[in-house]
Amino acid sequence: MPLEQQKAGMSIFESDDPTAGVQQRSRRAGWLMLSLTAVIIVGLSFFPAPYVIDNPGPTYDTLGSVEVGDATLDLISISGGEVFDTTGEIRLTTVTRSGNPDSLPGWADVLSGWLDPTRTVIPVDVAYPPGVSVEQNREAAQIDMENSQQEAIAAALSYAGIPFASTLVVSQSLEGGPSEGVLLADDVILQAMGTPVHTVSELRELIGISGANTPLDLVIEREGREIDLQVVPRLSEGDSPMPMIGILVSGRYDFPLEIEIALDNVGGPSAGLVFALGIVDKLTAEDITAGGVFAGTGTINARGEVGSIGGIRHKMHGALADGATWFLAPADNCPDVLGHIPDGLQVIPVATLDDAVDALVSVREGTAVAVCPGG
Questions:
Q1: Among candidates 266, 244, 256, which has minimal Cα distance to 146?
Q2: In 3D, which of 370, 160, 139, 97 has the Cα closest to residue 286?
Q3: For 48-67, what is each residue's pLDDT tens digit?
Q4: pLDDT value at position 20?
Q5: What range does the domain containing 238 cover?
Q6: Which of 5, 140, 195, 325 gives the lowest tally of CB atoms within 10 Å of its CB?
């Protein structure tokens, strides 16, 4: 082969390249491209992206203690009745959200979230529907948490056969909502559609039955007087619209036992199931957990019915990281965990508080228990 053809077929990086300057220019170009890429990545990390990121959050043992300020308190404390010792753990699971409409994450964080199976990237308009401020969202989450605690106590006492009385009180009518100027703070809702209501879940069910754009008949008590009025529900914003009347409500119960739940900086209704289980275990002479480490999630109403929640994938990873081997999940969430259950964790579907207690007893006794398929 002629020398010219041999040289023509050589790589420009071979040691006997005819021109040393070619190698030098190539290296400079490579370093320039690498530097430019680094600058772009660093720039993206500061440039806001229209997303938020959900991550596995901390877990809390409902049978243990928590730090509140400078004090160490039982997460669930009960007085006024007999309380029994427990030996296991029933861990409340959480999701930590990075970002909000006022403080968006950078693109580098979003790209990292897309690549991490334990995290979920969500469009900010889906996570925070238009028309609802970050502060309103936070207030609603806090009220949901307070309601879930009350519903959990009611469910646990109902399970234990301990009677109590309850009322439903308006905390706030949301600005621009169907109830603005109609329902006022501290109104007691007595009836909806002619049916007595005592809990948040009962009211929500009746609003759903009434549907949007159809007047909903209510009977309320305001300053000692009963008043008949109407509110026209409309569909909520977001991915799963449902009829709503635009109020924040809370259940006020008259419990015969004093039950306090000490937990700060956690919002939403999804801890109801584990609160109820913790109370049941403390009120039961039998040690239900028997030293096992359980975790779980799910809403609950005063009738003990368990409802589905969001963010279950993150909660499973958080549970496993904190030592749980069994995870109690709403039965309706079983399809959501298919293919996402981390190794070392078994997920038990439950539809009621009775199901959940029975599952703990089955695990304690070593008998078979139904689980969600891992996929």
A1: 266
A2: 160
A3: 899 999 999 999 999 999 98
A4: 60
A5: 165-254
A6: 5
Cβ atoms of 87 and 287 within 8 Å: the answer is yes
Asked if residue 250 has pLDDT above 50, the reply is yes
Is residue 207, in this structure, part of any structural domain at all? Answer: yes
Residue 185 placed within a domain: yes
Task: Report the alpha-carbon distance of residue 224 to residue 241 in Å, rounded.
Answer: 35
Alpha-carbon separation of residue 262 from 3, 9, 69, 149, 302 (angstroms): 84, 75, 11, 10, 20
CATH number for the domain that contains residue 190? 2.30.42.10
Tokens of 101: 């409409």
Beta bridge pairs of residue 106: 48
* 8 A C-beta contact, residue 300 and residue 322: no
Separation between Cα atoms, residue 103 and residue 114, nearest integer Å: 19
Q: Is pLDDT of 194 > 70?
A: yes
Kindly report the CA angle at 145 between 81 and 169, in degrees rounded to 5? Answer: 80
pLDDT of res. 10: 45
Residue 250 lies in a domain: yes
Q: Which two tokens stand for residue 202?
A: 């009962």
How many angstroms separate the CA atoms of 81 and 24, rounded? Answer: 83
Indicate if the pLDDT at residue 300 is higher than 70: yes
Q: Which residue has the tokens 């071979």?
A: 14
Two tokens, residue 63: 């049978």
- Structural domain count, the chain: 1
As given in the structure block, the two tokens for residue 31 are 């370093």
DSSP at 153: H
Q: Are 307 and 204 in contact (CB under 8 A)?
A: no
Return d(Cα 189, Cα 169) in angstroms, integer. Answer: 6
Gap between the Cα atoms of 231 and 211, Å rounded: 11
Residue 176 located in a structural domain? yes
